[in-house]
Amino acid sequence: MLLLTALGAFAFRLSDDEFVNRLIARLKTYNQRFPNEKVYVQTDRAYYLPGETVWLKGYLFDGMSHEADSVSGLLYVDLIDLTARKLVMQAQLKAVGGHAPGQLTLPETLSAGPYQLRAYTGWMRNFPEDYYFTRSLMVLETRTGMPEPAVLPAARPDVQFMPEGGNLVAGLESRVAFKATDAGGRGAEIEGFVLDSRNDTITGLTPQHLGMGSFTIKPEPGLTYTAFARQGTGTYGRYPLPAAQPNGYVMTVDNISNKSHIRVFIAGKKPADGTREVTLVAQIRGTIVQAANVPVGPKAVLVQFPRDKFPEGIAQLTLFDETNTPVCERLVYAENGGLLTISVTPEKSAVKPREKITLNVNVTDAEHKPVAANLSMAVTDARQALDPDSNGTTLVSHLLLTSDLKGTIEQSGYYFDRSKRDRLQKLDLLLMTQGWRRFTWPEVLAGNLPEPKYPVEPGLSLTGQVVRPNQKQAGKVRLTFMFVGRDSARSFLTEETNEAGYYSLYGLDFTDTTHVLIQAITQKGNRNLSLTLDQLIKPAVTLTQVPYNPLVVQRDELAEFLKRANEYLAIERQIRQNREILLQEVKVKAKRNETDSRKIYGNADATVKVTQQLAGGAMSVLDILRGRVAGLNISGSPMNPTVQIRGAANFSGVVEPLFLIDGMPVDKQAVLSLPVMDVDYVDVLKGAGAAIFGSRGGGGVINVMTKRGGANYDPSQDKAEGILVARLPGYTPVREFYAPLYATSKPEHIRPDYRATLHWAPLIRTGPDGKAALSFFASDARTTLRFITEGTTAAGQPGSSRQTVRVE
């Protein structure tokens, strides 16, 4: 199956045995039941003022293949106040082909301080929040910039020790990684040493990167080990190392020295002498790519995995002992040329203020071949963007690294910056200290997987449950949904719950806020029911520690940003105010039109106004119409009557009329389920009067006009039993980024232009030649413009780039 080599006189048996086959089958079942998704969001900047707009683009990926996700059509983007620990804003972005552009307009009353942008799909709610996408944003004071930072308590650094593979075993040499963090959650520079219980010095502690380091130790039986570490000139703290086990296995991985293979050294110690056969499995994103059976004893055995068998990303190496129990685990990064090169070249290396800038975009793969890609680009004034960290999160670092790890990864972009020669060594150190928990082998092998709680959302949806007031099941329940948009447009849908009372509507498509009214009635006409709506329940804000990163920026740069941003906000406010005044001065003179917008016809042939006297004792609207409209015959059971206007029939029998509720076609059961007291009046159209409805009106028309459908009805005030009324957000309308065009002179161009974000292009598409071009105009600032471009191919190859141009 795979070619393996070893040190020592051991023979390997290829891993085609029953256990490995069972692993593959169980993992396939797990992935089919719980396929994972990944989300990334690019923003134009990291620092904003209240009232500004956060321009963003979401990317959705299939978690296994990294192809653009075309299943989920809805991306949730939350803005969380880290100080108050609450959700303050949410956008629902429409995703098409795995891409979801949009924006968040920050309220002018928004408090200054640190915020977190959180993005996820409905399906991702089945998994821990650790795998949601998060990005830190900072909202500044309009006058002073940053609010007073919280004073962090003085505390000794937190130092954790992690034996490679999982455990120390007495008598077997192992490598131990450590990570030190300060009170703010950032990597801490420490110094220290390790002593054994005889007070002999074993090794020193010297971090290599962001508080992370490693050392080698061969624990002796009966001895314990303690580390002593301090930060700066503080006092030394004591940190016990994990106790060494008397028996077990150790695994050491060399992922650096050999360019063609990942080398794994395995040694084991058991009470009985001799070797034991273990199984080494390598999987990446839920797919087993390599596996082998290995005879292991106290002498280390080497297994080599060819790198070209791995796709780009994090691989999980797991060692199963002779009882098929996982005993060692290690994460490694498999680099295999899976990244894009995105080149953005200005036609001029330097431009003048307000001069047109044309950028040529070129995208190639690892073999320098042009590829088609979907990109987004933010062009910012480098002096005002206040984001000097070139090692921050990028699409590449999130998709290939942080999306598969728990916890916060500090400076994740560092590990993919090819200008950093030691990046792979430090990435390997990171993966020794950061835990993988997207799934655990015991839950995969158990086989009895639970049903997912949250479904995939191809679009907007309504889901919930109907129960009796005592919370007992009500059986199947008929539901009528009425949607009222901002433009007062109304639409109706009917649905039926299952036996447990659960209901679901999928694939809804509406923009901005709408009201929904849900009316429930049992098969026996009972309306004493309680309704819940899942969309009213937001995910909890459960924040893990986020590294505290104070704003580090030159004083003059911060002052420049505040001055220019406040100027631009004042201009935007004046523009909005002028528009409002102009609208107030417009006068329209016309005769009032008394016709009901719910009618597409003129006068009805007959109209029955529903009064309290008529409604008394009536089981349905059709009961009221019995005997009150000439030519209308209603016969049969009150729960399922036959309705016929003027003998409408054909060879198949009676042709019933077209039923409408507030002008929207519905079935007869929807009319029967309407509460009588909710009806305002009923129009009946016969013969020629129904001709406007074409063949559908061949049997006449009965249009039931509800009080709720009236122009003055406020659905949020409805408190009737068996009814739920909610105000729900639809897709966030996507605004087009505005930037002045200085090619032709306009009166508004006299305003000064010192915008922090000069251009935002969320949907740049390169053709098969890998090329695209875009243009915009420079502002008045003589500065450096920074272009941050990110994107992927349809197959999931990611790329990120940063370039600049001077404005002189």
UniProtKB/TrEMBL annotation:
Keywords: Cell outer membrane, Membrane, Signal, Transmembrane, Transmembrane beta strand, Transport. Its main location: membrane. The keyword Lipoprotein does not apply. It is found in: Cell outer membrane. Pfam families: Plug. The keyword Transcription regulation does not apply. Residues 615-701 form the TonB-dependent receptor plug domain. It is a multi-pass membrane protein. Belongs to the TonB-dependent receptor family. PANTHER family: HEMOGLOBIN AND HEMOGLOBIN-HAPTOGLOBIN-BINDING PROTEIN 1-RELATED (PTHR30069:SF29), TONB-DEPENDENT OUTER MEMBRANE RECEPTOR (PTHR30069). This is Plug domain-containing protein.
